[in-house]
Amino acid sequence: MNNTHKRLSIIMLCCCAFWLTACSEDKAAKTEQAAKVSIDKNPFPSRYTPLAGEPTLITNVTILDGIGNKIDKGMVYFADGKIVEIGETLSVPDGVLTIDGQGKWVTPGIIDVHSHLGVYPNPSTHSHSDGNEIVKPVTANVWAEHSVWPQDPGFGRALAGGVTSLQILPGSANLFGGRSVVLKNVPHRTMQEMKFPDAPYGLKMACGENPKRVYGKRGGPSTRMGNVAGYRQAWSDAQDYMRKWDQYEADYEAGKNPKAPKRDLNLETLAGVLDGDIRVHMHCYRADEMAVMMDVMKEFNYQIYSFQHAVEAYKISDILAENNVCSAMWADWWGFKMEAYDGIRENVPMVHNTGACAIVHSDSDLGIQRLNQEAAKAWADGRRAGIDIPQQDAWIWLSANPAKSLGIFDKTGSLESGKNADLVMWTANPFSTYARAEKVYIDGGLAYDLNDPQSWPVADFELGQVGEGDSK
Amino acid sequence: MKTFVLTAALLCVSATALADKIAVVGGKVFTGTAQGTLESATVLIDNNTVVSVSNGADVPAGYTVIDATGKYVTPGLVGAYTQLGLVEVGMSAGTVDSSVTTLPISATGAAYDVSYAVNPDSSLMAISRVEGVTSAATTISRTEYLFHGQGAVITLASDAQPVLKPKAFVAVNVGNAGADDAGGSRAAVWVMLENAINEVKEAPKSLSPTSDWHGINSRLDVQALRPVVKGEVPLLIHADRAADIRQVIAFKQRHPGMNVVLVKGMEAWRVADELASAKIPVIIDPEFNLPGGFDQMGATLANAARLHNAGVTIAIGMETHNIRLATQHAGNAVGHGLSHEAALAALTVNPARIFGMEGTIGSLAKGARADLVIWSGDPLEVTEAAETVLINGKVIEHTSRQIKLQERYQSFADTPQASQYIRLD
């Protein structure tokens, strides 16, 4: 998909842990070469360590493996943080902790691709409003992870709803809102301790009403055509920036002593997209706007990994399928603004039914607690419209497709041998309103246990306050 | 016995009203009355009203039978707190009648009257009624005044006269939002409220435009608040913090003749016994469980169950575009300890009672308006849905703008030429 540019440190950091680094790759140069400038792409590395777990066998459960298979009375075995095996009967070593899940269901952990937990946390005071850098329409230089407040009580509530990983996005005020970050949903002291190891970065972009409303009286864009001009100019600037670095690389390789271009954090992120390292997740409601954005995508040779909200995806599901773009959708939100006016309850199943990638997302600190119910509604609404999707296929909307769009499906998102043991045991069929997440495992560690209220997460903010979390 | 049988599915297609006499037979019926829930019952409807609900399948001659065997039957849902009919699209889309700024006719906001503003052709009406919401309380949501005007109870029927009860309630907010609009402090908002009410009690019986009047209410505000002060019209008070709710209880004790209802009440569970003693019902969204502000620290999913178990009357259904999700909200309350029957009551008879309309809407009492829903199964299950909806004794046409959009693009998707222009048919 991408061009063959090499820049900004495809070159390995030869010796160094600093973001701006002198590497001692010398070729006995004829001219005196200054140290080569390369850039650390990971200056805020994950310090995540999995919760301690023990080898565990869950028996007598209905299993949805997250990739379209259902086992009616099966077993799940995980150890050392990984799924070892699932099946109807498994033989496991002696002494393995065994949980009888009679009548219960096991699924992969839910992955929410659209959350603002931490950047728009509770309490929702102005002091905490860190999700939109509303100063200019192109702010690809900002990173959501620098706004994440790990003490947001919403993380713990989402955990009780079976969410094991989530993407934190900047808001949608800007054409380019900034980088997203993928987190493991293990409430911790610092963002780095929650950061999903080796997950690609995302870039939040936004179509439609929000940027034009915010910037209409601040120098623009004030129209949708202004929005598109803004995206195209920014990509064009990024191409220019990449050429400068290419030139630097080429000159250096040729033994010259070029001056490195000045770093531009904004263009650096955009170049990361054009390079294929960073994934675009674009807030876009209307079908016609999504179609335009897929043309912009082709013009500048990058990939949109998901349209976020995609309220009208059902109108163009064939075009979305053709372009391999996921749609991250609500089950039934609609009408709060014009671009959400054509929302219908069958959006998710209609997109799925065309063969396009459908994702159920929340964008809500309440909705994230019940994403299984959102998928259940979409599944049932589809059936009533004659789109009969098995529940084991519908679960793909909650785990596998989100993981694919985020670039972490090699690690999580399904119950396959060798993948992270991110899974949920539900009290009943999770397509029921009454089902609750009973045990939530992240990398094989028990992160939430419904039957042990004392263990439920209480954020620092809630400590010593009325209620102390939702256990009360 | 059965003269004419139609399946629910067929009824969805047949748009026109059936005969005046309808028998809904064989369903599990939640009545919303002392009859409770009947496992397999017959509901008789005549002349737009409920005649009877009885066990078994006996249908007198002359009734058109709707078979509800294996299905759930409930009264039509009553939206407890909405802006239905007052808003089409909230943001950047023109006039929104649920938002009011200042105008010289009112000084405290009580005078405003939404019964002038209800649009029965709003797309939200059909979208909500096909999912079982047949009536609703509706009012102003945003104003810079103390009071949020006079709300109305409306029917969601496609009806030229949507207002069932004008001037049905007056709302006020004494929590953070209310304080922010009134001097920035509870120390201001309560003084304002207390004096606005006391002033009405002391106001002359007649206030003509030429009367000498220097109150904090305008003349029209006084007129609007007189029935509130007498307890004929409920005062809905928004508050979340337990301390604020205790002030609401104290307010009721100071004004024992008034009919006070608590709205939102995130920490209401902490004062559940006192609310029960004071006979103050609560309208809630049971899914609110996050500390959105320093007056919501005790928010919990257990709120609904704890209130009900303490004997408080609760109503569930605070939404507008998605008031249809009230069933999911109630279902989650059940998932956190509320009894199923209490949850159904919270969607139907309890809001009717709060707005003084019990026996008219929200139940299948003899003589009640025949608003009735036949559900595919348990109404609180997210996978079930309203299949047949009757409003005022008529089967409504099962269609909406959203259903038409779905049908249009479904049929489009079924054709191989997926990029042809979609024609109006």
TrEMBL record, chain A:
Residues 1-24 form the signal peptide. Residues 106-431 form the Amidohydrolase-related domain. Its cofactor is Zn(2+). Keywords: Signal. Gene3D superfamilies: Metal-dependent hydrolases (3.20.20.140). One of its GO terms (cellular component) is cytosol. One of its GO terms (molecular function) is hydrolase activity, acting on carbon-nitrogen (but not peptide) bonds, in cyclic amides. InterPro entries: Amidohydro-rel, Metal-dep_hydrolase_composite, Metal_Hydrolase, Metallo-dep_Hydrolases_sf. PROSITE patterns: PROKAR_LIPOPROTEIN (PS51257). This is Imidazolonepropionase. It comes from Marisediminitalea aggregata.
Automatic annotation (TrEMBL), chain B:
Residues 1-19 form the signal peptide. It comes from the Bacteria. Keywords: Signal. InterPro entries: Amidohydro_3, Metal-dep_hydrolase_composite, Metal_Hydrolase, Metallo-dep_Hydrolase. One of its GO terms (molecular function) is hydrolase activity, acting on carbon-nitrogen (but not peptide) bonds. Residues 336-396 form the Amidohydrolase domain. Pfam families: Amidohydro_3 (PF07969). PANTHER family: ALPHA-D-RIBOSE 1-METHYLPHOSPHONATE 5-TRIPHOSPHATE DIPHOSPHATASE. This is Imidazolonepropionase. It comes from Marisediminitalea aggregata.
